[in-house]
């Protein structure tokens, strides 16, 4: 119930106005977001890379309804990639891109605009020796996102995508995308979805996650296990062993600020671990989804408001 209300609020401009206006919110946001400007993201990358982790950077923003904002997203990524390359932090690291921030919802031309903005980012990533993954948003965008993935992979075969186990369709998508060269980040799904398209019970989402993991681990692509759930991590390790996978043929991914100890423990055990580092001033939607994932975060948020 609570989680569903938070996910509804994540898309409400009224709730956005109220929550972002409270100064104490910032303190809680800092736990999940590296900072508001590129330099903050780069500083977080330096620290994580220094401790043996890999990163994927998200320049925060989503649901853009204006062409100039979509171009600003593209330019922000281009500036980020250039800064990382100048500091020797680009190689082997990644950017995560939301197509809705690149203009996907801009009417009839939206898909084309998003694809061309994403293409420009992928070209810069390639030149800098970086990777790129397309984040997955709500279910109405999936066909479009996978279509853009297919087209861009013709020029950037290392381009990755995200699949969400909450959705009924995802096992089929995993089968279609378990091929050689494919990079798929499997997550449980962070959006509020109707029961016509998605499992509603957490236990069903978890079981589906394991079924999807089985498909990806048995496939020929690179599974990217995007979860903080220790059970899923153990199952992924055991499926990797069962399928004779070497440690460098798959990776674990976790969000900045969540289970940092486990991130380091896995990396020290020889696994590849990539931390998803969000930065930027448009943190509202991202922050609300993190609150919705865990009621304890909301209690922490409420305490920080009351302690002012
Ligand atoms: P689960 O929700 O069961 O949590 C397991 C445990 O992890 C919890 O008990 C808690 O200890 C810890 N935990 C989880 N979330 C927490 C939080 N917010 N705060 C504190 N602790 C927390 N989704 C999507 O729809 N599209 C996308 O593109 C992405 N991209 C993405 C990238 C990466 C690298 C990750 C790790 C996740 C995403 N997600 C995502 C989010 C994903 O769908 C999902 O909502 C979260 O990862 C939470 O699910 P878990 O698998 O961690 O399990």
UniProtKB/TrEMBL annotation:
InterPro entries in alphabetical order: FAD-linked_oxidoreductase-like, PRODH_bac_arc, Proline_DH_dom, Proline_oxidase
Needed cofactors: FAD
GO molecular function: nucleotide binding; proline dehydrogenase activity
Enzyme's top EC category: oxidoreductase
One BP annotation, GO: L-proline catabolic process to L-glutamate
Catalytic activity: L-proline + a quinone = (S)-1-pyrroline-5-carboxylate + a quinol + H(+)
Binding site for FAD: 136, 164, 188-190, 202, 227-228
The name this protein goes by in its record: proline dehydrogenase
Organism: Mangrovactinospora gilvigrisea
Lineage, highest ranks first: Bacteria, Bacillati, Actinomycetota, Actinomycetes, Kitasatosporales
